[in-house]
Amino acid sequence: MSLIGQRVTVVGAGIAGLAVARALALRGAVVTVFEQADAIREVGAGIQVSPNGASVLKALGLGAALDAASMRAVAVELCDGLTGRAVSRLEVGRLRPGLGYHFLHRADLIGILQAGAVEVGVDLQVLSRVHSVELAARPVVVLEDGARHAAELLIGADGLHSRVRGALNGQVAPVFTGQVAWRAVIPGDGGAAVAEVHMGPGRHLVSYPLRGGAMRNIVAVEERRAWAEESWTLRDDPMVLRQAFAGFSPRVRGWLEQVQDVWLWGLFRHPVAGVWHKEMAEGAVAILGDAAHPTLPFLAQGASMALEDAWVLADCLAAYADRSGLAAYQLARAGRCARIVDAASRNARAYHLSGAARVVAHAGLRVGGWLAPELALRRFDWLYGFDVTTGHG
């Protein structure tokens, strides 16, 4: 279908929502984005954009802005959390060097996408909190102030607790994984652009530099029975975080001593949505990003998956003569996204081994790194090497 003049309503001004808004507007659509907050901001900390996500930003005309705001990663290094000793190293800087593997602050990525959306005429409406979504002859967004907005095409980019996903699929309760995560930012040390994964029994910590090394991002995960809310805005006591990693190496403990503000969130497993779209007599609806396929953070693919979705959805809508492009979008994305979600879940288990299994696994990683240092990278060709903007690996 031609997107020229097509009116599109996007719910959510996060990474997925802003990216799809720009992608659609570049193809001629008239796009309105509803955001519940009073301003478009990101309260998170660091984020990783791998080459498969960077290819989308480049195709959207935002590659130069990404390069200016990010640090190009050299490597991801797996370490024994208790001793600090290196276990394995992935030279991610060698991946598709024209695109790069990027570390940046979430706020900077949101800023890039917001500026990109505004540049192409997207109408960003803040303080527009969605109360419910009705799917009858056409999609209707009901705001909390009672206002009703009928949409020709409604796109749900409204995250983990998506109202649009609920309207399409019903409500399914997520399952607590038995893991919680803390996130924090501390002053940087100007170190190399390396992401360090410090692995220990029942817990691990990931850290990498941001903003030219002026800041350091920390994400720490612990297995425990105590449930925590699935929220990005729940504060915790830094001392609790320090106690959880008291047995880790001096390098890790030194970082945690600098933490002044820390946020805690529970990690829940959500199923990949069964239904990503619906066509109605006078309109249609689709979902993308976390609204369609929430993932655990252990493969650092949340942002790149959202960017891939945005490109493919806009591309499919533009390529087909009618709304059958929505079915093509789900067909193109569902299998790949399910594979990424499963891979992230497996990483969580591998990072938290204990006892003999931990010793054997670490020894295997060390030997593999000595004998075939490129093999570990090639294992991820299916992920980092695929480019949704060209359809090629």
Which regions are unreliable across 5 or more consecutive residues at pLDDT < 50?
none
- In terms of structural class, how would the helical and strand content be classed? alpha+beta
Major sheet attributes: 8 strands, mixed
Q: If you compute it from the alpha carbons, what radius of gyration comes out, rounded to the nearest whole angstrom?
A: 21 Å
Number of strands: 20
The total of helices stands at 12
Percent strand: 25-35%
What's the CATH topology label of the domain at 7-42 and 103-173 and 270-351?
Answer: FAD/NAD(P)-binding domain
Query: What form results from the Cα inertia axes?
Result: globular
- What is the typical, i.e. mean, pLDDT? 90
Describe the secondary-structure layout:
Blueprint: E1 7-11, H1 15-26, E2 30-34, E3 46-49, H2 51-59, H3 63-69, E4 71-72, E5 75-80, E6 86-90, E7 102-105, H4 106-119, E8 123-125, E9 130-135, E10 139-143, E11 148-150, E12 153-156, H5 163-169, E13 175-187, E14 194-200, E15 203-210, E16 215-223, E17 235-236, H6 238-244, H7 250-257, E18 262-269, E19 277-280, E20 283-287, H8 302-319, H9 325-351, H10 355-371, H11 375-378, H12 381-384
Parallel strand pairs: 1-2, 1-12, 2-8, 5-14, 12-20
Antiparallel strand pairs: 3-7, 4-7, 5-6, 9-10, 10-11, 13-16, 13-18, 14-15, 15-16, 17-18, 19-20
Helix pairs in contact: 1-4, 1-8, 2-8, 8-9
Defining key terms:
single chain; 393 residues; alpha+beta; FAD/NAD(P)-binding domain; 6-stranded mixed beta sheet; 34% helix; 27% strand
